[in-house]
What we know:
TIM Barrel; alpha/beta; FMN; globular; 13 helices; binds flavin mononucleotide
Amino acid sequence: MSLPPILSGPLTVPVLASPMFIYSGPELVAAQCQAGVIGAFPSLNARPQSALGEWIDQIVQSNAAFAEANPDAYVAPFAVNLIVHKSNDRLAEDLATVVEHQVPIVITSLGAREDVNEAIHSYGGIVLHDVINNRFARKAIEKGADGLIAVAAGAGGHAGTQSPFALVREIREWFDGPLLLSGAISHGQSILAARAAGADLAYIGSAFLAAEESRAPQDYKQMIVDSTAADIIYSNLFTGIHGNYLRGSIEAAGMDPDNLPESDPTAMDFGSGGDSASKAWKDIWGAGQGVGGVTSTGPVADLVDRLRTEYRAAIDSLAQATAAETANIAEAPTAGETAAAGSTSATAGN
Ligand SMILES: Cc1cc2nc3c(=O)[nH]c(=O)nc-3n(C[C@H](O)[C@H](O)[C@H](O)COP(=O)(O)O)c2cc1C
């Protein structure tokens, strides 16, 4: 199935920059769209609730001004993330704001609901739902989501445990609609790998946290640059569901990252706009295993430029490396042909 036009625009590189609690603001999203990748932010970042409409207006206006000044540039669309968890008491108001402003792409997390999907479809918006396994993926599509985000092992924030190969493969067995893949993607070669595995777009968070326009404090950005996959700790202590966090921030909060107690899902609380969750996320810094590929804290435009250069180089080098194999594969007999030839010669020998 081909991608809906809103996702298939001429992106600089096939990436949706994922929403990040607290740290994705309108300036980051506008910079992402203007660099030619789809930008996103969680609705709960805009506080009070009335700020959500203002943020959306700010992004739309900034993108329009950029497009006018740069008529040849492709300005990518943006997405708003709604946390569809029962503890989110802002959901109804945020959904109403999203519908009023006709947000083109909505990312739903932590729950799939038909009524939410219908509201977004009412004005022509599309819904991408994030999932950590094939069971949730089926449920999301049954409830009316248009596309899926496979959150594989190693992703920043709330992450799954499944290999991207397993997750994408199982979903692609029955779903040919829009599929994004997330988890530790911070290099153009990995974006190509996501596509080769069966995804349409890569979904990238942590690499954008370190960008100049992100709202993460400087120490957090630097810790991302200085960390590698070995510095990522998977724990459910901070929000009640498992996520990936920077070892250094857990140590700075006075805890032993290697001996964290267990929590449980009842600890999840997005009430009153995520106030209790935000306390945990302010001190304990989320990041995925792809931090080893993040080496600077420059502007979004530089990061997207690097990803594009790497992506193109990866396409070229893979094309070269596989050219000989392609010829061999085309010429080599299939197993069936070999068996048939064997039985013919056996017959001829008799
Ligand atoms: C600090 C942080 C906050 C996040 N907050 C949210 C959120 O509010 N909503 C959401 O759907 N995903 C959230 N995520 C997950 C990302 O959207 C995405 O799945 C993840 O960052 C992709 O993996 P990567 O960081 O390895 O690129 C967050 C991730 C990080 C690192």
